[in-house]
Amino acid sequence: MASRRYPARQLYYDGEPRPSTAKRFFETIDPSTSKPLADVVCASPADVDAAIASASRAFPSWSKTPPAERARVLLRAVALLRARNDQLAAVETHDTGKPLSETSTVDVVTGADVLEYFANLVGGGGLNGETTQLREDAWVYTRKEALGVCAGIGAWNYPIQIALWKSAPCLAAGNTMVYKPSEVTPLHGQFLAELYTEAGLPPGVFNVINGGGDVGSYLTSHPRVAKVSFTGQVSTGQKVASSAAGGMKYVTMELGGKSPLIILPDVDLDIAVDGAMMANFFSTGQVCTNGTRVFVPKSLQADFEKRLLDKMQHVRMGDPTDMSTNFGPVVSAQHLEKVLGYIRHGIEVDKASLLCGGLKKPAAPSASADMGDGYWVQPTVFTNCKDSMRIVQEEIFGPVMCILTYEDVNEAVERANNTQLGLAAGVFTKDLNAAHKTVARLQAGITWVNSWGESPAEMSVGGWKMSGVGVENGRRGIEAWVRNKSTLVDMSGAVATAFSKL
């Protein structure tokens, strides 16, 4: 094989790296240079079977391990994640193209936070059931029991964070997992599996397979899989959920969005502009919760756009490993074409006003900087947009902001809700009463007031409508990984019967 930055990435089950029986490989690419990073082995159906068998063998023992003991193992993994934050962040930067200034402060950090949260939750009695005295001589008690072997399907935009968001509650609850990273950004999978093993996780509790949609489909439809947790686009999520439903599997679906950000008339415009930029250009716009429909009062449009253009100069693209860079390439050549296709449609068909950005490849930030053949796109802002435009209706998943004006807040809310998606929404205002009233009317599962994008471990998050099923994180997040058993105990010494002697 040709020289690569990283050694070939293997499958991982039974507590160690494994070759593929199919002997097939694919490349993972550095988006900033378009150069291959590593060869990744692709799982065959037999390999998926072997990984699931490994997880099945590990389940009885792991599920019976006391929660406090499981928590100790997971907390050792947390310590390792934090000790190796910069190393793992560099892997994510190479694989995703996201700036190191982001991956070193967000991706690994927030994943470790969630693992720590669920370890402490179960270690402190978070899986305890309820006890109810039904009458003097009868009680009802409940137990929360692990589901079994679970499948986790990762997304390419936050690879290690999503892997941890899925595996943390899964493993804490006593389940085992077979995890498939996105084939676009798979580098983290083996690294995480090896770290879990080093922390003391028994063989088979966390397993990794690699491959494309065919591998994921085989995994999620497997009869020995009890639950599927998927993060990705709506159309794929529908297929995964349909397959899982046929097997009566539990599901958690975190899907796409076309989220509204509503700026109320009394707002501090500088704060609103900062929020809108974070909601559109952070992570090069490749965030499912992005607030890409920015509703601005007509009276504030000119001032908002002027301040926005002033602040766009602070978007710094370039070498993603330079800590001063805050804007990287999009993840792949295919995705670059998709994003540019939407920008072209916005200009040529929707006829939206192009405020900044566009189709031209961005220039290097300095004479010494090399943008190479990376997948670079300019941060783009369209204004005077209409609700009927394709760029307003469809998820672009790139750095494209659409500004829409409104005259009345009731109108803005009605238009904001006029979508099949309902992942996130937010309001910027000085009036907190107005903020609470407006947020209460927005049809989305994740909402913010005077902020955008923060998703702490303590906050349960999940989409409404076509944006998903179930929630991740927070106290409710553990419920998605257990099944409840209710038991009624009668101590009266007799059984009430309809068949007594007359």
Tell me what the structure shows.
The protein is 37% helix and 21% strand. The mean pLDDT is 96. It has helices spanning 45-64, 67-83, 85-96, 100-123, 159-172, 188-199, 213-220, 234-246, 269-281, 301-312, 333-348, 390-393, 409-416, 432-441, 474-477; strands at 11-13, 16-18, 24-30, 35-42, 131-135, 138-146, 149-153, 176-180, 206-208, 227-231, 250-254, 260-263, 293-297, 353-356, 380-383, 400-406, 421-422, 424-428, 446-449, 464-465, 468-469, 482-490. Helix 2 (67-83) crosses helix 6, helix 3 (85-96) packs across helix 4 (100-123) and helix 4 (100-123) packs parallel to helix 5. The protein folds into 2 domains: 11-255 and 467-486, Aldehyde Dehydrogenase, Chain A, domain 1; 260-449, Aldehyde Dehydrogenase, Chain A, domain 2, CATH 3.40.309.10.
Summarize the structure.
By secondary structure, the protein is an alpha/beta fold.
Key features of this structure:
alpha/beta, Aldehyde Dehydrogenase, Chain A, domain 1, Aldehyde Dehydrogenase, Chain A, domain 2, 2 domains, seven-stranded mixed beta sheet, 15 helices, 21% strand
Number of helices: 15
User: If strands are numbered along the chain, what order do they take across the biggest sheet?
Assistant: 14-15-16-13-12-18-19
Kindly report how far apart the N and C termini lie: 87 Å
Counted beta strands: 22
Strand content: 15-25%
Structural class: alpha/beta
Mean pLDDT: 96
Shape: globular
Number of domains: 2
Largest sheet: 7 strands, mixed
CATH superfamily of the largest domain: Aldehyde Dehydrogenase, Chain A, domain 1
pLDDT < 50 stretches: none
CATH class of the largest domain: Alpha Beta
Using only C-alpha atoms, the radius of gyration works out to: 24 Å
CATH architecture of the largest domain: 3-Layer(aba) Sandwich
